[in-house]
Amino acid sequence: MKNLPSAARQAQIRERFAGGPGVSVSELAREFGVSEMTIRRDLAALEGQSHIQRTHGGAMLTQRMMLEFDYRDRRELHRKQKQAIAAAARKLIQPGQRLILDNGTTSLELAALLKDGQHLTVITPSLAVASELQHTPGVEVILLGGVIRRGSPDLTGPVTENCLELFAADFAFQGADGIGHDGAIYNTDLRLARVDKIMRRVANKSCLLADHSKIGATALVRSGTLADVDIFITDTGAPAATLKRFAILGPQIITVKP
Amino acid sequence: MKNLPSAARQAQIRERFAGGPGVSVSELAREFGVSEMTIRRDLAALEGQSHIQRTHGGAMLTQRMMLEFDYRDRRELHRKQKQAIAAAARKLIQPGQRLILDNGTTSLELAALLKDGQHLTVITPSLAVASELQHTPGVEVILLGGVIRRGSPDLTGPVTENCLELFAADFAFQGADGIGHDGAIYNTDLRLARVDKIMRRVANKSCLLADHSKIGATALVRSGTLADVDIFITDTGAPAATLKRFAILGPQIITVKP
DNA sequence: AAGAATTCGAACAAATAAAAACATTTACAC
DNA sequence: GTGTAAATGTTTTTATTTGTTCGAATTCTT
Predict the structure, then answer these.
(1) Cα→Cα distances A98→A83, A121, A123, A167, B96, Å
(2) pLDDT exceeds cutoff 90 at B92
(3) Are A105 and A175 in contact (CB under 8 A)?
(4) Range with the lowest mean pLDDT among A146-155, A229-238, B94-103?
(5) What domains can be seen in chain B, in order of their start residue?
(6) For residue A140, what is the nearest residue in chain B, using CA coordinates?
(7) Roughly how many angstroms between the first and final C-alpha of chain B, as a whole number?
(8) Residue B231 vs residues B11, B171, B207: alpha-carbon distances, Å
């Protein structure tokens, strides 16, 4: 392989990257019959325009870098139920809708089900949801602003609330940390509770997702009651009598079996 | 396995982890035909990027769960200059200030320098900056809301702009994709340009960070001129005559040598 | 718990590669 | 041909990476 114009040689070098993790300067110099200095100059030129990154001794494709946000994955707990509940929620969604997903694990399961490429807009304060959907072609992800809680992959605070006010969505999907027998909805965090409240207000319809283990549990803050939500999805582990009482408060109740 | 440049070898090592929970130093040394010391150094480097966690006799994947926002890492390009520029910018910052950092790689280098725990508030549309600072005790990170650009770890759009308007900061630090000889500031993306413009407005002082390779370059959108910024930091590779002309436009000019 | 066997990390030396400066060739226009 | 600019090669200097040795630390074995 000899006497190539420099541009052609650089194009050839680019092909090289398909083969392996990287190429070495000395190897390329030998193959093209040019000096190593020339190869270095080629690589320097390619580095600017193409997605390669120079290294000592050669070059490689630019690394896909990942941003790491700490994240305690609590998805395992009652995961079956949560997935079933998410699947039921998925059925409520029509193409073209604007959805709000909160930062619960059930919402995250729902996000995973949105990957089949319908045209959707997802508004969320959850970095986990955003991460899940970032590469999904049909879905536009709008991340709400806010303060990053240490050790929690989501955004809360006045900024988040303010951001949320900008939107009008078709559906809000949210979880809860507890649902009292009187239908009160509880959250463990005040800031999350405030955000949840606003979500319900800016969405046309709101949908509460909670497996049966949450029924009867309470937590720090009351963010509202079942009377504020339009649809409540839970699993068949929930006692029928309680659900009957809940229904009187207003929401349509959907039970799924895991 | 043939001789690979060190960076390529480290990338290969990372692949190894896909197969199992861990790898051993001796095994890797044999496979790559290098000394164990070299492998240890590789592992130490990878550990520094927190991709892996070292163990006696080898290494394993980091335990903690992470959210992956992946993107092409361009940090290596002119990194020396960018780090020097970031260091100069760091000196401008006083404890207690509220800072805006944009989504350039130079801002990311600056973020890394803020880790020494002063009391600071950082407002940014960059997931990379947020990720970098999320564990820093003295720093509160406020992530702006917005649309996640595919393949880019940052937020833009009307929501971002609206979010920004909520704030008043002491300093805005931003990069540029090009600076014309007439002092015009260029960005490759219209939405980023709009965001940059607002940043300058809501910050008391604005500071442009750009290595000399940007001088003379142009890009799609003009986001403003040097007359709009208070401080311009670049490296000593910039031609003195040009800098003199820039100074007439108003900004204080700081040059650092890499 | 003590001793043996690994493994690690620091220090230094050797090898290798990059960058800078300068010389040479090539390509092309006139 | 000759001048000029771009590209390539050479040489020297500088920086990075790797290998080796050896004492310290860690794990395993008994």
Answers:
(1) 21, 5, 7, 9, 39
(2) yes
(3) yes
(4) A146-155
(5) 6-61 (1.10.10.10), 79-256 (3.40.50.1360)
(6) B147
(7) 37
(8) 39, 10, 5
CA of B9 to C1' of C3 (A): 38
Q: CA–CA separation, B81 vs B83, rounded Å?
A: 5
pTM of the model: 0.76
The region of weakest confidence among A117-126, B63-72, B234-243 is: B63-72
Q: What is the pLDDT of residues B132-154, one digit of tens each?
A: 888 788 899 999 999 988 767 78
Residue A7, H or E segment: helix A6-19
Average of per-residue pLDDT across A29-56: 84
B127 and A67 within 8 Å at the Cβ level: the answer is yes
Tokens 């590789």: give the residue.
B42
3-state secondary structure B181-246: CCCEEEECCHHHHHHHHHHHHHEEEEEEECCHHHECCCCCEEEEEHHHCCEEEEECCCCHHHHHHH
**CA B105: distance to chain centroid?**
3
Which of B123, B133, B134, B144 is the best mutation test for A, with the most CBs of A within 10 A?
B134
pLDDT score at B73:
60
